[in-house]
Amino acid sequence: MSKEKKTGNAGKQKKNSTPRGANPGADVHRGNGGELHQVATGQHPALTTNQGIPIADNQNSLRANPRGPSLLEDFILREKITHFDHERIPERIVHARGTAVHGHFELTKSLAQYTTAKILTEVGEKTPVFTRFSTVAGGAGSVDTPRDVRGFAVKFYTKEGNWDLVSNNIPVFFIQDAIKFPDVVHSVKMEPDRGFPQSATAHDTFWDFISLTPESMHMVMWIMSDRTIPRSLRMIEGFGVHSFRLLNKAGDSTFVKFHWRPKLGLQSTIWDEAVKIAGADPDFHRRDMFEAIEAGDFPEWEFAVQLFTQEQADKFPFDHLDATKLIPEELVPLQVIGRMVLDRWPDNFFAETEQVAYCPANIVPGIDFSNDPLLQGRLFSYLDTQLLRLGSPNFNQIPVNAPKCPFANLQRDGKMQMTQPKGRVAYEPNSLSETAPRETPDRGFPSARVSESGEKGRIRAESFADHYSQARQFYRSQSKYEQAHIASALVFELSKVDHLHVRQAMVAHLRHIEEELAQRVADGLGLGTLPKPAEAAAPVQDFDQSPALQIIGRMKDTLEGRAIGILIADGSDGAIVSDIIKVAAEAGAKVKVVAPKVGGAKLADGTMMEADGQLAGTPSVMFDAIAVVLSDEGVKLLSKESAAIDFVRHAFGHLKAIAADQGGRSLLEQANIEKDKGVLDAKDMKGFIAAAKTRQWEREESVRILA
Ligand code: HDD
């Protein structure tokens, strides 16, 4: 593999200098048309075709004469173009846009009492993992910050085979039965006649389907909450959603739900901020993850389980096999049993992030499935999709998918077979081979011993009929700010729906969740009168509130993983800027200096301060808090620059802490920003750092009309 040269700032290169990486000298020459040729010498290997034939000229196709037609005979051109034409594989029908990182899982507490799975019993053992985060609805090239569920898929390369925990950042799902999956996905994807919207739920077909699917109402509360507009992939939770089983040596089984909890705490953006980030940096989450890994700030999650028995489950006021229900932490507490650290960016995006094939059916001995009908359907779907996507049943041989423990079987042949098995025997039982793989009854995969009986049919259990109680519990458990965000999100989304009857049908559902929410949304939509409540298949129950369902209550008092932007211009006071950089960095924040020119600004003392970002391309949505340090001269210049006014105006509107010196305060005045608790003097560093660790929720009413 070739080693890339570390090059400095391209802007610092002299005009007409040799391009980056090209050594001037005998190995570089210009062709007849002035085109650049780089010739292999020393460290650069020869460029060859896929057949190993050295290529003399990679700049010109074979022509009948210098200005004549190209020749079909040019196998080098044809091979290169043919390969290029085939460089894309079908993107994932859902979760197409993803970001993945290598790392490891370490068990801190053994579950030996419940399971034989080594990954859950060998404390201290580090198991390699490959974790892919994704949005659901958009295509592979869509933006990172739409309102959407985030996928959180972990492949554990255990000693007993691969275990894939294919999770989301929301603990429940839209539907109860896998047979509805194509419908819900078709409804959310771009509408088939017009080809838009990309990556958005705010359109007619989605809400039409949802309004006709009462079982989605709990999920609707989650997707309208700020969970679907996360600040960073490093600040989301992960949930295995379904109940699984753990099996111990005696064959006894215990139900389990799996959870990931981020070390950096939960944090989301404000909707208006998420929209603006999409324009400012479509790769916001991927870049954030990449930069964190590069900087050695390895993201970490706690791994926790909820364990419960069949007897406990029988007493739950909901059916745990229904994927639209969660088990509140207050009912079955979480036990932290391990941690995951992600610390290595893939070498190649396509080879790893794109080709990785997760499958909920990949589990190891000691873990088993439950009867959740959504899970049961998933067990079929993923293998099928990988066969299409990766084109061959041998996709398990791709390095990112291959187990890291020994594996052997008698499956043979197929497209893109990479192994060369020896011998005559590809069947079992056999008497001709002394080395062929054989069964392992003592440690092979066991299924839970469960007896099944009852009437066969397409029948939904009555215990699946309560669609509103947990939706109500979720809504009531939120802080008043989060409730307002849910109401506003519903108004925003339903305002994009052309069909009045769909808007009304949604409000009719909301009446079962919370009358006050239904009224807020109806008012926001200008509905006039409230529609009749939707038909409910089961009485709505009042469950105790579960504060664990909030985000605001789960934010961590830290600046780690957060970013602070300092706006400067010519004449800024360098001592104040240095102070902010020092104190913010000590508090764990990443600090970036933003100036009208990327080359930087000349400070009051005459020294140059380099900028990390140019004002127009580095708006305040990239930061969690901002500081504005300006001279009179700087204010004069920047009050005429809408990007500077927006910089402070948006930070204020997105409820961020702002520190400003005298010049900075003048800019705030130009932007009509009134001082509040989150607007601090640039010298009050203690106050600024404390305010930067959170958002100024009380400010929201003064900047936005919430539903
Ligand atoms: Fe799924 C991908 C998570 C229900 C069918 N799903 C996919 C990914 C995640 C999830 C994280 C991306 C994996 C990656 O990064 O490559 N899916 C879930 C969760 C679900 C769920 C948490 C409910 C609890 N999914 C679900 C159902 C079906 C599918 C009910 C079909 C019956 N999911 C797929 C799929 C995908 C997929 C079509 C697309 C790409 C892929 O599998 O590899 O097979």
List the helices and strands and how they pair.
Layout: E1 28-30, E2 36-38, H1 75-85, E3 98-107, E4 126-135, E5 150-158, E6 161-168, H2 181-188, H3 204-211, H4 217-223, E7 238-239, E8 244-247, E9 253-262, H5 271-280, H6 284-294, E10 300-308, H7 310-315, E11 335-344, H8 349-354, E12 367-369, H9 373-390, H10 469-477, H11 480-495, H12 500-513, H13 515-525, E13 563-567, H14 574-586, E14 590-595, E15 601-602, E16 608-609, E17 613-614, E18 625-628, H15 632-638, H16 642-653, E19 657-660, H17 662-670, E20 679-681, H18 685-692, H19 700-703
Parallel strand pairs: 13-14, 13-18, 14-17, 18-19, 19-20
Antiparallel strand pairs: 1-2, 3-4, 3-11, 4-5, 5-6, 7-9, 8-9, 8-12, 9-10, 10-11, 15-16
Bound molecules: CIS-heme D hydroxychlorin gamma-spirolactone.
Model description:
The protein is an alpha+beta fold. The protein contains 19 helices and 20 strands. Strands 3, 4, 5, 6, 7, 8, 9, 10, 11 and 12 form a ten-stranded antiparallel beta sheet that branches. The chain is globular. The chain starts with 27 loop residues before the first strand and ends with a helix. 41% of the residues are buried. Its cofactor is heme. GO terms for molecular function: catalase activity; heme binding; metal ion binding. Belongs to the catalase family. HPII subfamily.
